[in-house]
Amino acid sequence: MAASPSPAGGGGAGAAHGSGPSSFAFDSGLEIKTRSVEQTLLPLVSQITTLINHKDNTKKSDKTRQAIQRVGQAVNLAVGRFVKVGEAIANENWDLKEEINIACIEAKQAGETIAALTDVSSLNRPESDGQITIFTDKTGVIKAARLLLSSVTRVLLLADRVVIKQIIRSRNKDLKDEKKKAKMAAARSVLEKCTMMLLTASKTCLRHPNCESAHKNKEGVFDRMKVALDKVIEIVTECKPNGESDISSISVFTGIKEFKMNIETLRENLCFQSKETLSAMLEALLERMEDFTDCAYTSHEHRERILELSAQARMELQQLVSVWIQAQSRKTKSIAEELELTILKISHNLNELKKELHSTAAQLAADLLKYHADHVVLKALKLTGVEGNLEGLAEYACKLSEQKERLVETCRLLRHVSGTEPLEITCLHAEETFQVTGQQIISAAETLTLHPSSKIAKENLDVFCEAWESQISDMSTLLREINDVFEGRRGEKYGYLSLPKPMKNSANLRSLKADKPDSEEQAKIAKLGLRLGLLTSDANCEIGKWEDQENEMVLYGRNMSSMAYSLYLFTRGEGPLKTYQDLIHQLEVFAEEGLKLASSVQAFSKQLKDDDKLMLLLEINKFVPLCHQLQTIIKTPLQNQVFLKVDKCITKARSMMAVLVQLLSLCYKLLKKL
Questions:
Q1: Which of 39, 63, 282, 445 has its CA 20 to 30 A from that of 371?
Q2: For residue 115, what pLDDT band results from cuts at 50, 70 and 90?
């Protein structure tokens, strides 16, 4: 529920707190604890006050009677709508259903009573003699009004409890999602920084009420806080205002990842995609890269290299399509090998593009951070402000605007190469912050320049400059994290892609060559890895279903999925695992993590009924032998047959992941049943 229901569509004539002996005082014994409830009740109170405060000696003209009847009907209709919303809330919240329904019934009865007492249109007719109305029984209307306000207030307070429960549930459940965590962190950062900004901006407005730049400054802070609060509501309620959709475009790195997955699927299914679809995907990807080539701050060397690699990608896709068409009609070994070679070539080209794009964005960001280390322009703006130097203000405001545009453009490029959704969100936040804060600094500097002796105007400018400096510092951290992801030093989630330490019983590793796979071996390994990558995605989908993301089974499953993903990256010549020795280290840890998971699942099985327990133990009995078999393969020395060992290990890891997906799915269903 996004907001509490409103019992009245608008206010009537009169005030909530009338004066004089006949006025209706809002003292019905209610305890209005929140501003939101009070504000929601005001239109209803206003309408009721209009009814109560009519003068008894007023001539009962048709116009007067019609007006009173309209107000009474409006109250009754508004209460009817309110009750429907309240009943809907009750049906969705069984623990509060009885309380809400009782309050709704009372509100409905009170609304109908008010409607009956204000039905005065027929008073001039003979049959209306003896009819009880507001003119003959004002006390009845007052009692009904008090009952109505009391019941409506109770529904509003109960609705507030529902919202609070949603917020608590969201905090305990939803914010374990990394994307939502990043969005909430960005919104919280805005609110925290804007709190001090709002204080000084408001003080400046009070001190200089006729200063346009001061008011512009304060309104800018309000707007930013409103957007941040809307984001919080969106995260908590899991729905966007007015049905909006996420309009941020897909990043280049995400596009490359999706394109490569589609290309590599051709190894197993030649009819998976049409050539038109792949061509359209590549063109859309290259169009997004225009953010780099069109950027005024991209160096000539980087721009030329990106354009060269883009043209090469188009040529290699044409070659792939040509071989692909042949492979669909000729099922020969030679054509299959040629297809494999073209897939590897285009994958290599895309990897080179990623490196070039990352290098471009990272270099721009690093250069900017060095340039901004001393905050020369901010210091100059402060100085021109206290001197009242309007010419100096214009000069340095122009320089700050140029810096702002450059920072915004760089944040946009960093988002394309960030590599993870949480970092993409952080880049968007940085982009928005520089865009807004830059303009606010100029407004604050203008106010100080117009009032150079104003202490509060000076303090206000200092606060906005500190926010800018803080965002520059945050950008430095962001760049470091993006570089870590690109170099494989930081995983997409929880850091599990980091290289594990060597195990104690790894003497047999010394017999392995520490070299990287050669091109022939890499081509063979790539075929092994695709299925492993798909199984990793399946495992992550199963893990995402669990409400308790800290459950021990989930933690072990996530560890295994992340390590399997690093194995998959190795088969593509990417990621943190560079040599065969690195790979074997990772596989040792992978097998051990599997046995820990099996132990955790066995402990869980003791809580189940016999049939469910047997079903789960059957799955465990498939999984544990695979873990032991992988450990045996790892420990068995195979002189001069390294690739054979790697082939067996990855095949076994693939089998483990297939059973892991089944295990996680079954455990989730049984836990829900339990």
A1: 445
A2: confident
SS (H, E, C) 218-284: HHHHHHHHHHHHHHHHHHHHCCCHHHCCCCCCCCHHHHHHHHHHHHHHHHCCCCCCCHHHHHHHHHH
Domain ranges of the chain: 35-119+136-174, 178-239+373-487, 252-364, 519-672
Q: Six-digit token pair at 420?
A: 């993870």
252-364: what CATH class?
mainly alpha
Cα→Cα distances 3→171, 210, 610, Å: 18, 36, 47
Q: If residue 318 lies in a helix (H) or strand (E), which one and from where to where? A: helix 300-329
Average pLDDT, whole number, for the chain? 79
Rounded CA-CA distance 224/216 in Å is 12
pLDDT tens-digit readout, 191-241: 888 888 888 899 998 899 899 999 999 999 989 988 888 888 888 776 665
Residue 132 tokens read as 């009880």
Comparing 575 with 371, the larger pLDDT belongs to 371
Name the CATH superfamily, with its identifier, for domain 35-119+136-174.
Answer: Alpha-catenin/vinculin-like (1.20.120.230)
Q: How far apart are CA 389 and CA 574, in angstroms?
A: 56
Distance between CA atoms of 6 and 156, rounded to whole angstroms?
A: 8
Instruction: Quote the strand ranges of 459-550, DSSP E.
Output: none
Q: Domain 519-672 belongs to what architecture?
A: Up-down Bundle (1.20)
